[in-house]
Amino acid sequence: MASNPRNGRPYRRLVAAQKAKGFPCARCGGYINPALDPRSPWSFTLDHIVPLSRGGSLLDPANARSMHRRCNSARGNRTATTAPLRASRRW
Fold it and tell me: Rounded to whole angstroms, how far apart are CA atoms 23 and 26?
């Protein structure tokens, strides 16, 4: 049975390095608190610029950026041009 590559040491190193940089969320620009519980919607997650399902590299640092869990889930596997932010008010 194949193991999950996201449980491996190289992936955990990439996540730790990106988290240590302290960059804001790539989608909303908000501060990401590194001390939050990982299950919180405002906690840190590693986002891949080119989604893995579209051929992006799992371990390439150039394909990684910081994002809130909530923002990353809302983006899904779309590229940046197809995942606009929601409108500020209802139309």
Answer: 8
